[in-house]
């Protein structure tokens, strides 16, 4: 995925109470489809762990064994 896609627009932030934010956040996510929620979760995971699917490889080497 492109790194530019994940830039933060710092002008979009606002300060609200935790109680108010909690309700707004629940409403926002319940309005999304399950697929959209999973995509957001995957995007967050990739940002936090620095995952790049183009460069990742298997961590173990698998060996093919002939059965007798």
Taking the alpha carbons of the first and last residues, their distance comes to 45 Å
**Beta-strand segment tally:** 0
What composes the largest sheet? none
Radius of gyration: 20 Å
Proportion of residues in helical segments: 40-55%
Unreliable stretches covering 5 or more consecutive residues: none
- The portion of residues forming beta strands comes to under 5%
Specify the structural class: mainly alpha
| Form type | elongated
- SSE order: HH
Textual characterization of the structure:
With 68 residues, the chain is mainly alpha-helical. It has a domain at 18-51. Helix content is 43%, strand content 0%. The protein contains two helices and no strands.
Question: Secondary-structure map with pairings?
Answer:
Blueprint: H1 18-30, H2 34-49
Question: Features of this protein?
Answer:
68 residues; mainly alpha; 43% helix; elongated
């Amino acid at each position: 995925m492109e790194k530019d896609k994940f830039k933060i627009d710092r002008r979009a932030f606002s300060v609200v109470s935790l109680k108010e934010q909690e309700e707004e956040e629940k409403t926002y996510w319940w309005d999304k489809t399950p697929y959209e929620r999973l995509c957001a979760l995957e995007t967050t995971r990739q940002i936090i762990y620095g995952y790049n699917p183009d460069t990742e490889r298997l961590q173990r080497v698998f060996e093919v064994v002939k059965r007798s």
